[in-house]
Amino acid sequence: MKIIRVAVLTGVLIVMVPMCTGRNNARTSESQVDKAIDTVATAIAQKSDVIKDSKIGIFDFTTIDGTVTPATKQVSTRLLGKLVDSTKLIIIERSELDKILKAQEIEQTGIVDTDTVKSTGGISSIDVMITGTLVPTIGGGELSVKVTDISSGRIYTMTSVAYPVKESTPSKSDKELAKIYREHPDKLDTLNRTYNELIRLGSNRPAVFLLAMLDSEDLTKIDPKVKRKLMRIKEKIFSEIPKLQRRVMILRKNISLLREYTPERYNRLSDRKKELIKGIPEKIQ
User: Is the pLDDT of residue 201 over 50?
Assistant: First the structure.
């Protein structure tokens, strides 16, 4: 396995990240982000004795809705670069981390956290995971980076760095998610992970999507023949892929959180469920 000796990264850090337009603003934004990352790297270096013997994986950062974008990936890469230059922690090389995730069926397409990792049986050869989220605000933004022990779920430290940027106006949806982030930070990852996974399943694995989304009321409305077909598919899928059964159980548990905290997202998923129910004989697989 390829590893790089870099800094200890233990905690949650917050960096203001701009959402701006125009060449001058973009240039200013780059400078501000670099300054913030420098400050964060220095703070992390001061914690270098905490996990000096741990193997660390830095995951792609995401937007507040759990999406990986070129900008969020760039921030995580730049932070890594600063740490490589200034400290001595053991960190898994990026290409090697991608291979590990692929081998253990963990997608780098959105939220990855300890719940996701544990549901797949853990990530071999990694002790600590680093994840981050970009949170837009009026006049700037925040980057929340969490450093977690994979086996225990322990979060090591919290550090914050903030700076203002002109012409930054978050969307209505981002404002709502930011409010959840402020009031219920422990729930945001769960909400994003659940929603994004269900969106993917609704397109790629409609049968699994329905197994997660259908409730007792839905089952009473489905044609008995279709219901039996769905149950046969359920038995087949779960017997072939036991891990998928655990994921469906977790999704079903978290759907109630979507309904409570992000009803607009829940309604989108419900619309997709209705579409699939109408076309079960043709679309389910």
Answer: yes
96-117 tens-digit pLDDT: 777 777 766 555 444 555 565 5
The phi, psi pair for 22, rounded to 5°, reads: 90, 150
pLDDT of residue 134: 78
Distances (CA, A) of 236 to 56, 124, 136, 210, 276: 37, 28, 43, 15, 19
Q: Name, in order, each residue with C-beta under 8 angstroms of 179's C-beta and a sequence gap of 6 or more.
A: none
Residue 200: count of CB within 10 angstroms of its CB: 15
pLDDT digits (tens, 9 = 90+) for 211-248: 899 888 887 877 787 778 778 888 887 887 777 888 88
Give backbone dihedrals phi and psi of 248, rounded to 5 degrees, phi first: -65, -40
Q: Per-domain residue ranges for the chain?
A: 3-169, 192-283
Pick the CATH number of 3-169 from 3.40.50.10610, 3.40.50.200, 3.40.1160.10, 3.55.50.30: 3.40.50.10610
CA distance 252 to 248: 6
Strand 128-137, strand 62-63: pairing: parallel
Cα 282 versus chain centre, distance: 32
